[in-house]
Amino acid sequence: MAGYQLSVCAEMVFLDLPFVERVKRIHALGFGVEIWGWANKDIDALAATGARFTSMTGYLSGNLTDDDEIQQLLQSAEASLAVAERLNCPALNLHGTGLDNKGLPVKPVDVVTGAMWLKAADTLRKVAQLGERAGRTFTLENLNLPVDHPGTPFALAADTLALVEAVKSPALKMNLDLYHAQIGEGNLIELIRRCGSAIGEIQVADVPGRQQPGTGEINYRAIARALHDVGYQGTVALEGWASGESGAALQQFRDHFTL
């Protein structure tokens, strides 16, 4: 038996249902639940579903490198921690920069300088300190540049790994998104082995199309075996669209990660 737990992003499935009903449906099917931004959601209603929330976005605005934006990031991370406590959600997700509602960087970056790297690491240390005090973990997600998130700094899994290793805090881990990594880097099983204990969460969707495992080119059955072999004990979350009926897509996801 695998030691990891399966979760599903409620933003991308059962799209015909109100958001709280999506959460209830995912929970009823035996999965954990993930959400993106919390500012537009009824937190009390979400908490009342009894769902097991595994991850949520950990900031509302700001970025890792600009002084005024850093303050926004830290303030909204602190506010996000309060929401995470209400939902009993252990992990809060970050990106290399603030993203708009289309997933594009609010402030696109062409060249990431050494000074930006140092500032990002310093900001993440401060974020990790917030997480340590609250007993929760922030995760830094890799993104792909060619398809979904052009202009995002610190986008590769190699970048997020370097920052997590530089901070050296149990409250900052990688959100290793294998959909993004396949587009940006490939060699996924070796990437999992390289990242090892730095991984706080795995997110999945197939390539191309960002749909459930089994709809594209990634051998997710081999990924599941690799995660088992390295002793991964965390969450594997489907952050992808359903190719057809959402319930069937979630079953296909479960089938690919059942050993």
Automatic annotation (TrEMBL):
Annotated family: Belongs to the hyi family.
Protein name from the UniProt record: Hydroxypyruvate isomerase
UniProt xrefs under InterPro entries: HyI-like, Sugar_Epim/Isomerase, Xyl_isomerase-like_sf, Xyl_isomerase-like_TIM-brl
Family annotation (PANTHER family): ISOMERASE
Keywords in alphabetical order: Isomerase
Xylose isomerase-like TIM barrel domain span: 45-246
Pfam families membership: AP_endonuc_2 (PF01261)
Any one GO molecular function term: isomerase activity
